[in-house]
Amino acid sequence: MPSPAPQFTLVVAATLTNGIGTKGALPWRLSREMAYFAKVTREGGPRTSHPNAVIMGRKTWESIKPQYRPLKGRLNVVISNSIASVDDLAPVSASEHPTLLASSLESLVAGVEASNAFVIGGASIYTQALEHPATTRILLTRILEPAYEECDVFFPEIRHSNQWAQAEHTDLEKWVGFEVPQGVQEEKGTKYEFQMWVRKQDSSA
């Protein structure tokens, strides 16, 4: 009997105005934040015998440099209606975990075998995931300053939502399973903070 599909966790870095990208790329280059992203998506969350999965749209996949995709140590899932087969995702480098193609988030609920399923973009996939009942938490890196006003792609607003609440930092560390720097971090002139938000009816998770 196949394992039940995991719940979705969004992983995103966003400014105070919810900017997440500009001209198809990240407007910041933060090595410690990227290391956190890599560790969370590879090792974070409750574990089973299956690897974690990273779920992304076609544009996010294409924004990853070819030598770095698929993201290693994770099951890579690309959501697209315009790609006919996984072979069309080339160049796909060798990896111990395969790359899968899916037509929608809903199709994944039926049984992607992964310990945890992390949705990593882009904007339209984030929006779909936020509306999906299987999405229970958001691992948000809040970019505090500078404003990065050049952003032209945005994450939906969750701070004033009646569906989402910010969790305590200890809950973030408990869920990911490792220590996470607390409070405002600074790197290359950019200030940011690691946060976790949970769906309110799932706040005890």
UniProtKB/TrEMBL annotation:
Enzyme Commission (EC) number: 1.5.1.3
Organism annotation: Rhizoctonia solani AG-3 Rhs1AP
GO MF term list: dihydrofolate reductase activity; NADP binding
Record-level GO BP terms: dihydrofolate metabolic process; folic acid metabolic process; one-carbon metabolic process; tetrahydrofolate biosynthetic process
Functional pathway: Cofactor biosynthesis; tetrahydrofolate biosynthesis; 5,6,7,8-tetrahydrofolate from 7,8-dihydrofolate: step 1/1
UniProt keyword list: NADP, One-carbon metabolism, Oxidoreductase
Signal sequence bounds: none
Record's GO cellular component terms: mitochondrion
Superkingdom in the source lineage: Eukaryota
Protein name, per record: Dihydrofolate reductase
UniProt cross-references to CDD domains, sorted A to Z: DHFR
Family: Belongs to the dihydrofolate reductase family.
All copies of domain DHFR, residue ranges: 7-199
Pfam families given in the database record: DHFR_1
PROSITE patterns: DHFR_1, DHFR_2
InterPro entries named in the record: DHFR, DHFR-like_dom_sf, DHFR_CS, DHFR_dom
Presence of the UniProt keyword Protein biosynthesis in the record: no
